[in-house]
Amino acid sequence: MNVRRSAAVLAAVAVIGAATQAAATPSPSASQAFPSALYGDKDPKFDGVWRQSLALLAQDTVGVKPAAKSVEWLVRQQCADGSFASYRPDPTTACDARTMLDTNATSAAVQALAALGGHDAVTGKAVGWLKSVQNKDGGWGYAPGGASDTNSTAVVVGALTAVGEKPERVEKGGESPYDALLKLTLGCDGDGAGAFAFQPDKKGELAANADATAAGVLAALGKGMVVKPGAAAKGAKGGTCEKPGTPEQAAANGAGYLTKTLAKGDSHLTSALPGSDPQPDYGNTADAVVALAARGDTAQAERSLRWLEKNGATWAAQNGPAAYAQLILAAHATGTNPRDFGGADLVKRLNATGPAPQAAQAAQGAEAADKKSDSDSGIFGVWWYVGVCLVAGIGIGFLFSSGRRKQQQP
């Protein structure tokens, strides 16, 4: 996920998607204010729905009830056919051929709204659209019609699971998502043994990809972004790579690859842009923690979580709500308290990137009411005192005037 890919990678995917769709929806002008219901203050063109969905999902996971207007904003991003774009500046304008539809954003929205509950009609239409754009190999690409990739297929599997669908029963031409994922796994030879590839290259070759592997492990286990702590998946045992003939074995192989890769990198993953040195990859490390926890490979998951506790908060502060959400979901998967994550309260920091949650709004309302009550009481007290003084003054005046009248009487 890695904050659902950087703007640079998303832009590259958008170029690929342009082969099957028209140009993307124009981004808001620099002077245009972003919606107050949206989490984060950076341009949402490529990740508005994604980061909103992750923020709401993370809040729900830790028992925080999001602001109603933030949920409503996400719901209103849906197109009439059930799909979601990466971001729609004006949801009152109908989606058309220029709207950049996005399987990842749609699937993330489904997972968030399904977790929140009460949005069956929205999630039902979204899943119906996802099924309609499933590729013949059983998988999904980032944009409808694009070649299947592990990450997109994985997030769709999470959406299907979130609404109670059985991914293995969602087929196109007899091929299920698991069939697509198995075709994207590497064998047990070489440095990338057991890993998932993102996509085949132009020659049809597969290259190990840690981000895709973390996503692939979760999907092969039939899980979404939220993994309950201690809920180890049943299936093939890890440790040795075997031919990935089943989703469970592919997940075991992938977990083995992640464990070895994390161990080589001081318990974190790295990534590098062309021409630059490898740098710590916080987002992919968080995803790897969730994937390993889902498999029950807790030893390495906890070691990597400890590394994130020491180093992740600063990264999240620079990258916003989706980054905070990834850390919260990683903490949740390992039973770690996200409100004391290496000394940082991730939940408080996430909440601060958007509208105050409902409980906070209620508390603020109560506090305002108390202040008003105190203010009213103060005003009443002042006027009560003034009134007493006036009455007293009137009484004294009456007594003096009455005395004078008595003195004047013959």
Task: Report on the architecture of this protein.
There is one protein chain. With 410 residues, this protein is mainly α. The chain has 14 helices and 2 strands. Helix 9 (247-264) packs across helix 10 and helix 10 packs antiparallel against helix 11. Mean pLDDT is 85; it is low at 6-31, 363-369 and 377-410.
Descriptive labels:
disordered C terminus; Glycosyltransferase; 410 residues; Prenyltrans; mainly alpha
Please describe the biggest sheet, giving its number of strands, its sense, and whether it closes into a barrel. 2 strands, antiparallel
Which stretches of 5+ consecutive residues score pLDDT under 50? 6-31, 363-369, 377-410
Termini gap: 104 Å
Give the averaged pLDDT, no decimals: 85
What CATH calls the topology of the largest domain is Glycosyltransferase
How many runs of DSSP E, i.e. beta strands?
A: 2
Number of helices: 14
What is the C-level CATH assignment of the largest domain? Mainly Alpha
Spell out the blueprint of helices and strands.
Blueprint: H1 7-17, H2 48-61, H3 68-76, H4 103-116, H5 120-132, H6 150-162, H7 177-182, H8 210-220, H9 247-264, E1 269-271, E2 279-281, H10 282-295, H11 298-319, H12 321-333, H13 346-351, H14 358-408
Antiparallel strand pairs: 1-2
